[in-house]
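Supplementary Methods S3. Input chains for the assembly prediction are listed below.
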Amino acid sequence: MRRRTLLASAAASAAILPGRARAANEIKIGMPMALSGPGALYGQPITKGAEMCVAEINAAGGLLGRKLILLPRDSKGNADESVRVSRELILKDNVDFIVGSFTSAESPAVSTIAKENKVLMVAPTAKTIQLTSPANLHPYIFRTASTTDIEGRTAATLMAKWDVKRVATIAPDYAYGRDIMEAFSVLLKKLKPGVEIVDQQWPKLGQADFAPFITAQMSKQPDAVFGAVFAGDFASLVKQAKPLGYFDKIGNRYIGAGETGSIEMTRSLGTDYPVGIVANTYDPVIWPDAPEVHKKFTAAIKTHLKDDYGSSWAIMGYAGVQALAAGIKKAATIDADKVSKAMIGLTFETPIGPQIIRGKDQSANRGQFWGKLVRTAAHPFPVFEKVEYTDPTPFMD
Amino acid sequence: MSRRIPWTLVVLLLALTIPWFGSRYYTFLATQIAILSLFAVSYNLLLGTTGLVSFGHAAYFGLGAYATGLLMKELNVPFLLALLAGGLLPAAFAGVFGYFCVRLTKIYFSMLTLAFAQIVWAICFQWNEVTGGDQGISAIPYPELGWIGAIPGLGGFRTGDHFYFACVVLVILCIWVLGRITDSPFGRLLTTIRENPERASFIGVDVRRYELAAFAIAGGFAGVSGALFGIFNRGVFADFMFWPKSAEVLIMTILGGMNYFWGPVAGTIMMVVLNQQITSYTEYWPLVLGTILLVLLFAFPGGLMGALDAGAKRLRGQKTGGGDA
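Predicted structure tokens for the full assembly:
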């Protein structure tokens, strides 16, 4: 009995031993990402994209003669857990860098941890402008995602092109939704002084019942709507809006931010998708005018994901690692402070062409693809009629 | 569980040795275990001692975290004062909610505790101006603990270690107080209520008032542990008070052995280590964790402490018996 207890406790203590000190021939990248729960639909392909980039770099001989190792961890899509796994990655696994955390709620929290531990972090998808606002900026946070300013202001310019007077908005009631609506309304009023924001709805994130919000909005008789309801919430909104005639009433003049034009979204909604609306995505995937580098990326990611259509999100994980790798290469060291300096003003390659990380907010000039969704005979789900990448530069300040 | 061994002191001394291993990760894990242990021990005052199954204990944990976090971050209130508020505010809330909850029994009591906890959660989740809503409050300052480094022999430690020392001392102090409460005549009456509430009321015990007192005390100590956790976690989030957190503390307590005072601590160690290990090996952690918990609960119906107790008794050649409280 005693011996068995001894063995058991020895086994138990062995199990909690911290990982070996970092090996000199490796560069470890921790990746906290939503791999379970509602965010997993996007978190999974983002992780796969990062994985593919790491594999490609290693196949080409690694970085600074070292092998990249990606350690993905499930952040469960919530801030609390994201912080926990990030600290575990730093303290136990001794990661050199972090690429990750998914939402605008998680990333500012992980950014605090990165700052405290002086571990450089690249946020590949978090858009809240707060993440890199002057008060929260520090040398160890970089962003390769778009921002709420870019997204909201792009939507405002698109809205300004329409002949509308009464505009309504609907967005989730948290950082992302509030920041994007602020950016949108300010610019729209400047571009089109005659326009009036007649209604603003704030459903909570993960709202199950959208009917009250929809009917309240319809009663204000808007001409057009700007929505930032995304992911599963957008699917709920669409399904509940249909019987109420919401999209018909506004003549499909709905601009949907939050990657509502992603191939994940169009495929999951299929014939329920409200065609005729304008939506955005990080990667149109089905893109006739795609440059060669994008075609190559799409073919590779399809194989890597074992999926016939690919993903609109994988590119974000892929480009996040590309940015970091370019920074390490330029710094020629893995010292966080030196890589941080190297990343400011850095130009790095992505599947949609080169991007620049500017010094002011340590964010890449990542815009999005916008366009009208239509049904075609070629695909069982809606695709962009004509998709355009909007240059974010005019919207970043 | 011999009465002659001062377990509280033994655990305190053992816990204080951790930073000497020199690993930041050990200290990190130990801090988490220490703080959550207090959460679980406070819960056991309800579950094991009084026989009340609360499904909403996380509400008080979260309230403590928000109270202390906001006071320290927004108003620069000193650590100990903020911590005190982090205990008193949840105790007051527990007093109010408990007033209604103890009017119900069994599953109805449990459901009402859950309902109150979900209300508190919903408020914290939506009240963006104060609680930061979904985004929570991040960058809560570490308390000023540099003086610990001035103590002879503790010079070479990091901020995280200093915080750990402070946590261990505070947690053990709270656990000691909870132990004294459990062993006091008041605590004995709570056990009487657990065993037979009708009989307790026949002998003139105001059952509801005693239950309410236990509920408020447990809520207060849960608040202290939440307050410490918020600082440790470098941020406070609405998830702290969401129902899975209440389920977690229930599982930790049962897993460790609710009939033993130190049972919840054993359960916390088990749960934290399991959670850390499994999530770093597989993305299918819920399946693995669930299976392990299932096996453990079936194999050790008295919890880990029950199994240890039975093993120790067998070694001494005694008959296996149930645990003593």
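The first helix of chain B runs from residue 7 to 16. Chain B touches chain A through 32 residues (CB under 8 Å).
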